[in-house]
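# step 3/5: fold
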Amino acid sequence: SQDRGLKGRVVSQNDNYRVYLKGEVSELISCCKSIMHEGIEKQITHSQIKAIREWNYSAVSKGYSTIAVGYRNFKYKPSYRDRIDSNIVFVGIISIADIPEKQCYEILTYLLKNKIGLSLFTEKNPTMYLKLWKELGLINEVSDLLSTAQIDHIEDDKLSEILGAYNIFSKVNSSTKERIMRSKEEAGRKASITGRNYSDFKYLSYGYLSVASGEEVIKNIVSTSDIWIKDGCLRKLVYLREEGSRDLYSFRRYRER
């Protein structure tokens, strides 16, 4: 289930067990064989799956963050070795309004004023972020995004020039991140780079300053990065730069407790 980005919790029910699951709608719905409808488990139909996908697309296009929930029953206690991402019962979708905080605008204004570029990478479908990015003034149209598929068709000698016109890169994998940051480094651009997973190791090596970001960041990333920030990464980087030295390199080995 981790391969699909699904998270679960095992709950004991009398002599049986139930695994409650949550994850992206597109991933969880593809694992469902049944649906909870009016309190009864029923076989899920193609028309229901289509309706769920359409409703989710409509919600994320309006700026909502969505997450699907479901469950699977077991007659024994499942372990991490068991494949639980099949025969799931679909329960529903939770949608939450994703409203930018005032601080977001202040940070972006600061970056613009100080001529600091901001590059955002997302491995997911960008649709769910379009409304938010537009509100923050990061993009105007979908064409302002650059994807891995597009980057793969750009020659290395032209990549640096083209990258300068884009702030957001969608559906990017680790190798594409590495290529983007290597191009920026070769062009003489100094960057602080954030990462948290094993796939970010090589990508972080191209940073003038490497930043381990998040509570759940792996230990090896923390030990090899220059900075570890648990939450509010961009906000705290801006604070450190403003209140300390204007040279972020001076913050090497900073660790947030």
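# step 4/5: annotate
The chain is about 35% helix and 25% strand.
# step 5/5: archive (pending)
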